[in-house]
Every structure is written in C-alpha cells, then in structure tokens.
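Might I ask for a little of your time on a matter of protein folding? What I wish to show you is a protein chain and, alongside it, a tokenised description of its three-dimensional fold. I should value your view on which stretches of the chain appear to form regular backbone elements. You will find the record immediately after this paragraph:
***
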Amino acid sequence: MPHDTSWLLHTSALRFFDLETTGLRPDRGARITEAAVLDHQTTCLYWQRTANRPVAALLDRLLRCFADAVVVGHNLAFDFRFLAYEAERQHRSPFAIRYIDTLSLARAARLDAQLGLPDLALETLARRLVGREQASGWTFHTARGDAAATRAVLWALADRLQIQTLADAGLQRMAWAR
C-alpha cells in the first residue's frame, strides 16, 4: 500500500469503489446489496447479494482488491460505515484502507458555489465536470455505474484543481479496529 503521499496520482494504483444498500443506517437493519471495484480500465469486482452470495465473501474479496491500492469513492464515509459494521458483525480482524474521497475534494474546492451547482452529488458533479453525454452512459445509483462515474469525476477534478500527487488529492486513512 502506498505510504508516500508525494506519489503521482496518475501512476498510483487506484481502485474506484461504490456500494449500494437497502437504507442509510446499518445499525437499523440496512444491508449491503451491491458492490463494485474498478481499476483504471476494468472491473476488478462486481458483487450482488443473494442467498448464495453472503456479505462474508464480499469482505474478503474487497480487501484483496484494496490491498496495495488507494480506494477512490464518493462519500466514502457512508460506504466505510457499512463495511466496518459488517466486519464487526462477522468478528473480522481490523483493517486499514487508504482512500481519496471525491466528495471531500469537491467540498474543499467549493465547487458547488464556483459552478453554481445545487449540490455535490455524484450525478450532479459527473454531468457538470465530465459532460452530460458521457454521464448518460452510466446507470447512477448502481455500484458499477457510480464507480465508473467516480473514476471520471476524479480525473476531471484532478485536471480542474491541478492535482498531481496523492497528497494533493487529499489521501486519507480509514482504520477500523475492534
């Protein structure tokens, strides 16, 4: 896993991540229903919850995808809350994830005020920064569609905000521990 925040963003191992859930709070019964992890070009993981595909198997696969990479997502606090909750339920060993949150980048740059946006939702940012035509090719509010949109939004933010390094991109570390 990269430890040096001076590493160049464009040459870093990035994994673009999203998950979908049945609600907003895992502690009130909401559960993960879908997850996707993309790299620069391909799908590394796509998972949907079924009776034969429990979340326990998802956590193992996700952590393998995230190993030696920086996770990129939009509003990752939400996604990580679900991962930590599921890990706790399964008595999993602690893990740490290095990540970049495109929502945090957009907030720090005050893009809503700069661009006159009604909000900083992923779909809003994608349509404005990447373009309506390209954004119309993604199915928003699906794990795969949102991960692809996040990938495009990160590169649009990097160009707009002149982000060169992991530090410029606001690299953070989420550590879950029992």
In short: The chain has seven helices and six strands.
